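**User:** Here is a favour to ask of a fellow structure person. Please take any protein you like and set down a full record of it. No explanation is needed for now; the record alone will do.

**Assistant:**
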Amino acid sequence: MTPPPAIAQVLWSMGIGGAERALYQLVRGLRAQGLQVDVLVSSIAGLYGDRLRAEGVPIIELGQRSGLDVAVARRARAILARYDVIHFHSADLLLVREATQLGRSKLFYTHRAGRFNYSARRALKYEAVGHFLRKSFSVAANTQQAAHAASSLFRIPLDEIQVVYNGLDFSLLDPTRPREEVREELGLPESSVLIGTSGNIRNWKRMDRLIEAVAALSAMPVHCVIVGDGPERPALERLRDRLGLGDRVTFAGRKKHVGDYLQVLDVFTLPSGPEESFGNAAVEAMGVGLPTIVFADGGGLTEHVVDGETGFVVRDQVEFVQRLAELVQDEQLRISIGGSAMESVRHKYSLEAMVDRHTELYRGRLREPEVLVHA
């Protein structure tokens, strides 16, 4: 009997983030089907890498200090040569180049970013990556938005890019602590409607819009919870203080188990711009029944929401505040939209669907595709 192919999933690191969380769940799902899957990280393992290692998954750390670490990339070729399938989830130029020198391995790349205005230097790097992708790789994207971004960035025809949505193991969001304990930890007021968001706090996440919306809802019993950390947090804290919202906006910080904190919220929003490709945080919130608001220019986020049915898509800040006010005032609307959201995303973004789509991707490039039939 032919043994299953050796598969390497390659990412810069496996720290806290949407792409890292998606890859963590993909690896677990593929291995649950009996496939041989290892993870190769260009730098260090990070939170999700450590979790996979604790579950017995081989994690290979290259220890690159930057994407221009030529010596490390060259040493990596011998490691990459062990695998029949090499799947990149970050556009590491040197590793991508090394992988193209391997005649036997089948190469894949998934684009997990939306539309960014890159510097000239970074754009030049992606132009070089595009040369190798066009030559040797099967290319996928985790949303239609990401597919359009990859097509433009790497000069790959759009119809040659497959869309493979992230899948989530929603059971990982089951709370591990009592709701009351989390509320007490954060010091949340009992009578307020809790509006929240989560993620890596960067400028393109536009979390300032949420804080400004809370200020506009000053006459209503609302409280804002921001779960996560990142370079824009100090600026957001200054905005909170400048607007006099010190007792109405709570920064919870980075948390390992986001489900504990989603359970205390009544409304969720991810106000990201077109840079957002998938937005795991929004799908996770919808998956636990939270009515969720995104912006019409929010990249791949709009692919998750049917406006007025499974959430809300708003065009501007005025409409954002209006929708928040409606949800704050109408508990039945929150319950109805949240229930529809849960049913929708748990079906569309199931872990099984993601694993099936990836095995289809790999099967199409292998000489003996029957070895990828589920055990």
